[in-house]
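Q: Could you fold this chain for me?
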Amino acid sequence: MLGGATGPLAVDTERASGYRYWQRAYLVQLRREGAGTVLLDPIGLGDLSDLAAVLNPLEWVLHAASQDLPCLAELGLRPAAVFDTELAARLAGLERVGLAALVEELLGYHLQKGHGAADWSRRPLPAEWLTYAALDVELLLPLRAALAAELDTQGKSGWAAEEFETVRTAGPPVPRADPWRRTSGMHRIHKPRELAAVRELWYARDRLARQRDIAPGRVLPDAAIIDAALADPPDEAALLSRPVFGGRSQHRYVKTWLAAIQTARALPDSELPSLRAHSGGPPPLNRWPDRDPAATARLTAARATLSEIAGHHRLPMQNLLAPELVRRLCWEPPDRPDAATVQRELVAGGARRWQCDLTAHALATALTAAPT
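A: Sure. Below is the predicted structure, expressed as structure tokens.
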């Protein structure tokens, strides 16, 4: 059916974020001109190689493609080309880039929402959920046509093609260094040993969540981790008296949580984590003026010139050039900041050709700015 249809393929997935540990696809929605909409349950189908042979050579139309492509790749589904409607809208300078907002603004339809955060791993799926899921691909193809026309009018089709290819070939996200440092409530932690307790509890929770395929926050909330790290309970009774830990579901894991706390308590001072995270990049911006006034001047000049370029081309600043790349370039500029050298630095940092063409010369000038 899909193989005999024509044109690009509209694609979307539904995961169970907030319910499951793994970000797998629990429903795949497909639509192609002449074939209608197909809802696919990848959990029950197993090998999808025959489907991949039909779908992979096509251009796929997705909204926020980077969210869906990794879980589709796990199924062996990898497109030959991508059109990302969210990214296209950003490049076109549209203010609202959510799917419902774009469909309403460009096509005049109102999408009914309501089940995006549902537990899509449950079976059977309710009929109203399936209707909601189908609507997510129902209008992707005409939305692609409208956005492609707008990009062509603005002379940005080539830019979009480079961006889409970058998204398509990006691969899975790189794991974060020290992911436990993103535990909500970390601002309450002020001692290295408390920080060690957060780390040990975070990893204990992550192991359990992975084994049970349950979202970590459903195994143990971040707030409970912070509370236990601050309280440092000496025994099971003291831990069970803390909020959340006294709940019935936590009794079975009390030894696991207490062991994590005891591990942190027993660490020698030399092995405690630093309160200040080491990112490997420039320091936080609020420290720049004291640590390197010249770098501050360069960044101020760079932001001003990039803002002007972005405004002229109706682009969000973050799509003109990645903010982290700009910060790194201003903190450690090349010895000879001419346009050719700056362009090489931008390319090495992942910038696309169109971005380099717009920004390299202006950044080269900004990198010569001196403190006032």
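A (continued): The CA atoms of residues 70 and 172 lie 6 Å apart.
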